Task: inverse folding
């Protein structure tokens, strides 16, 4: 008996982590969610979106942002308007200041959402690009009859490849100028 390694088998067993096991990314995501919840808790009088409050907001959202500071000024300068008690100057001023202060925050959060989605798409693209290269190389190796194992794995990869649909033009939709098979006069 010799200790010569068998060519088609790895020298040592490779530990394969299950795909549904918690990862360091799960931990980072959980920390991020906790920090995000803490950040939300900092927002004074935070109002989550709800269908009933959405109706109220939509009713008044189309009016100019200038209406509030103009009304604040008018109520402060006109005792008759102040006497109606219909406009709470401190509350309106606080709301206007809140909106002004949080506009850059909204922009940052929207950009974060956009960039985080792009980061996820980018990381998928990196993985898919590498997988497609591995698939192409595996197809070549799998043609060799002594590489039945590779051919079997390539077949499994092909099953899950699910290429995006190609834009097929029918002959009826082609114009003579767009038909690559026909020379233009």
Result:
């Amino acid at each position: 008996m010799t200790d010569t390694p068998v060519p088609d088998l790895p020298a040592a067993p490779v530990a394969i982590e299950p795909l549904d096991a918690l990862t360091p990314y799960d931990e980072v995501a959980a920390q991020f969610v906790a920090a995000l919840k803490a950040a939300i808790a900092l927002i004074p009088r935070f109002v989550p979106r709800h269908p009933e409050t959405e109706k109220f907001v939509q009713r008044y959202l189309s009016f100019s942002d200038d209406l509030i500071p103009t009304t604040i000024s008018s109520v402060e300068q006109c005792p008759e308007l102040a006497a109606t008690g219909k406009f709470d100057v401190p509350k309106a001023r606080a709301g206007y200041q809140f909106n002004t202060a949080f506009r850059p925050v909204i922009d940052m959060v929207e950009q974060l959402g956009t960039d985080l989605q792009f980061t996820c798409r980018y990381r998928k693209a990196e993985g898919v690009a590498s997988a497609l290269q591995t698939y192409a190389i595996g197809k070549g190796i799998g043609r060799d009859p002594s590489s039945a194992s590779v051919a079997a794995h390539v077949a499994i990869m092909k099953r899950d490849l699910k290429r995006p649909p190609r834009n097929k033009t029918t002959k009826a939709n082609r114009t003579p100028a767009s038909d690559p098979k026909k020379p233009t006069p």
About this structure: The radius of gyration is 32 Å.
